[in-house]
Amino acid sequence: MEYVLAGDVGGTKTVLALYTRAQGVFVPAHEQSFPSAQYADLQSLVRAFLSSLGVSVRAAVFGVAGPVINGAAQVTNLPWHIREDELAEAIEVPRVRLVNDLEALATAVPLLREEDVVPLNDVAPTPCGPIGVIAPGTGLGEAFLVCVGGRYHPFPSEGGHADFAPSNELESELLRYLQRKFGRASYERVCSGSGIPNVYMFLRDCAYYRESPYIAEQLSAASDPTPVIVANALSDPPDPLCAKVLDIFTSVLAAKAGNLALTIIATGGIYFGGGIPPRILPLLQRESFMSTFRYKGRLSALMMRIPAKVIVNTRAGLIGAAHLALTLADEGV
Predict the structure, then answer these.
(1) Which pLDDT tens digit goes with each residue over 40-66?
(2) Domains, the chain, with CATH or none
(3) Sheet holding 72-74, edge to edge
């Protein structure tokens, strides 16, 4: 049986999966998740995955969290520099391609089933309309799809690193706090897993909210503060400071997604991907979220025509990478 390898390479974890084609449909054969930081490079991680399987792989595509230029990528939140040719030789796979992780996710969007997404509004997409994808995970990724000749083509973007633009006075104070801390403030400094602790520290350090000793104890024991903040924001009752962090996070996410929708006139829809949106889905289903998304002044009427959906299939990035890998394998026939 012939296999292709798909990879979703993130700052926190890397997921690898073997796929094969059965009766015209590609299906997963084996999947495993790895903590990215525990490996010196992607080659070591992939070899660890393949060594125990003993299969022949025709092609591999890896979605990586960072820009891919001329077959090379520097992973944004890892000290990994990856080259397609070096990786192909190291893992002994004849055809290897690197793509931005949001390009892989965007590739999957036209392939998603109804149960893979949760709509946030009741708006039908325009056939062949442009589609935007925004995905807060460890970082903040963006991509878009353009339809040509009845077929969608994905394009990567680094829009998550665009300058953060506040929408109210509190966010203006947050901007100044981030500028003092980092020099420059991008959307990713706020609207991502790595950004959530920044918002928490801003509210705490600037005395907007008092930190609970209970939360402080949890944070001091945690290797990653973000799951602690999110869990306590969603608890019943929620911690006031953590809840406000998520209020700011969702407001900024809605505004940024609205900016993406305006940039590409996304009448095909805006899709929220990444690890965080499914975990905070009830917050995204609040009317205030869509109100902020639509609040674009004279263009607010246009925003009423933009469908918005949350991708709840956690394997969407792998599905996109697998689709690209099968295409790559077929090119080598």
Answers:
(1) 999 999 999 998 888 889 999 999 988
(2) 3-99+315-331 (3.30.420.40), 113-312 (3.40.367.20)
(3) 68-69, 72-74, 81-83
